[in-house]
Amino acid sequence: MGQFEWAKESEKQWGERADGWNSRSEEMWESGSRKDIAPFFIKHLNDGSKVCDLGCGDGYGSLKLASSGFEVTGIDVAEVMVQKARTVNKGQSATFIKGDIASLPFQDEDFDGILAINSLEWTEKPLLVLEEIKRVLKPGGLACVGILGPTSGPRQNSFPRLYGEEVICNTIMPWEFEALALQMDFNKVDELGVYKKAAEQLSKGALPIELKQALSFMWVFLLRK
User: Fold this and answer.
1) How do strand 111-117 and strand 137-148 relate by DSSP bridges?
2) How far is CA 136 from the centre of its chain?
3) What is the pLDDT of residue 3?
4) Which residues contact 53 (CB under 8 A, 6 or more apart)?
């Protein structure tokens, strides 16, 4: 049995999922679980900001930013996703490259903003990604990071690890990520909870933030360097 290589296996699996993901991504960003993320991030950015989309997938999140006037660079581990992102963003001010988001091919303090939605959980060492985010952000720059919550279906991809299987999905929780970010001297500027329909019907106003995060499908953090 060959040695497990996270990056190669990740590219293989995301390449296999690319068509299915692409068929759903527009709906997710326009009316589904990601519909509020771009407006949430954009309201905090200055016009014309230079933004990097980490784990850009087929580029629909990048499109939301590019079509709002931002200069966007997307990076993804899977070449097939990069090609789809270029097609989705044809005619926009957006560039896409294949690469590892834990080792970014950019200079220090290169970006005004970072978008990373459900991408840290799909890396071998999320801490390295957060360190790279901090490195490439300008002083005062903003990182919009979405972490899958406990009620998220995609978390089932990490379960086989309990059987000793090699998997590409990590298990970082929103509160773990928040603690990690604060320890690295990021400041939390804003946050956004995304819930399944059943949880949306619950009154959450009096709940502490930890319980709100525990009910979430995804928790989106806005962090300032």
Assistant:
1) parallel
2) 16
3) 74
4) 59, 61, 62, 65, 72, 73, 74, 75, 115, 116
Furthest-apart CA pair in the chain: how many Å? 52
The answer to whether 95 and 86 have CB atoms below 8 angstroms apart is no
Distances from the Cα of 206 to the Cαs of 164, 209, 219, in angstroms? 40, 9, 18
Tens-place pLDDT, residues 204-217: 878 899 999 999 99
- pLDDT band at 2, cuts 50/70/90? low
Selection from 158, 142, 157, 188 nearest residue 49 by Cα: 142
Quote the pTM value.
Answer: 0.94
Fold of 6-22+46-224: Rossmann fold (3.40.50)
Q: Alpha carbon of 217 to those of 18, 151, 156, 197, 211: distances in Å?
A: 22, 5, 13, 10, 12
